[in-house]
Amino acid sequence: MSFNPSEFRANFLGDGARPTAFQIQLQFPAIANSPIAGAKMQFLANASALPASSMGIAPAYYFGREIKLAGDRRFNEWQISVYNDEDFTIKNAFEAWSNAINSHSLNVRSAGALNLSGYSVDAQIIQLSKTGVPVKSYTFKGIWPIDVGEIQVSWEAQNQIETFSVTLAVNEWGSDSTN
């Protein structure tokens, strides 16, 4: 293969996908007590990742030699970073959602979160083209918060907007090419 910039450009569709062109759609469950948090997520979720695909290995042994066989798929947790605005709508919704699953004070679950269908939702991350058209989407199924992150405050943090992260358990995910 020779160095040929023209061939490189010809095979690089749309000048490449950009990590800044994405949107997260997540409708909070009823137990989060926030009908507007989901609408705000598409604007204030400022960072995440398209998921990795992990397959387990089920080893078998024959005369001392390990034979690797395909195992079960593993769905890693999904992390989202969110801008915090002054009404704390999204932060409050995640905290209420987490508290309904297991309360801070009583170590009990609320009546609306008695099973997975009551405390989990589906969400999407959508990769957009530079013209704003969706080019790839991933749907996370059966997600719920396992960690609602801290917000750092400091007198020295001038000209910054608060952010916090949320780590969500994922029961499965699929993409528009795997569903």
Q: What report would you give on this structure?
A:
It is a single chain. This protein is α+β, with helices and mostly antiparallel strands. It has one domain (22-52, 69-175): Pnp Oxidase, Chain A. It is 17% helix and 37% strand. It is built from 4 helices and 9 strands; from the N terminus they run αβαββββααββββ. Strands 1, 2, 5, 6, 7, 8 and 9 form a 7-stranded antiparallel sheet that branches. Strand 3 and strand 4 (65-74) form a beta hairpin. The radius of gyration is 21 Å and the shape is globular. The chain starts with a helix and ends with a strand.
Given helix and strand content, the structural type is alpha+beta
The coarse overall form would be: globular
Q: Tell me the strand percentage band.
A: 35-45%
Q: Give average pLDDT, whole number.
A: 94
Could you tell me the radius of gyration in angstroms?
21 Å
Major sheet attributes: 7 strands, antiparallel
Whole-number count of domains: 1
**CATH topology, which one?**
Pnp Oxidase, Chain A
Beta strand count: 9
Instruction: Assign the CATH architecture.
Output: Roll
In DSSP terms (H or I, runs of 4 or more residues), the helix count works out at: 4
Q: What order do the helices and strands follow?
A: HEHEEEEHHEEEE
Features:
179 residues; alpha+beta; Pnp Oxidase, Chain A; 7-stranded antiparallel beta sheet; 9 strands
Show the helix and strand layout.
Layout lengths: L4 H6 L11 E5 L10 H8 E3 L6 E9 L2 E10 L3 E6 L5 H13 L14 H4 L1 E8 L5 E15 L14 E7 L2 E4 L4
Antiparallel strand pairs: 1-6, 2-5, 3-4, 5-8, 6-7, 7-8, 7-9
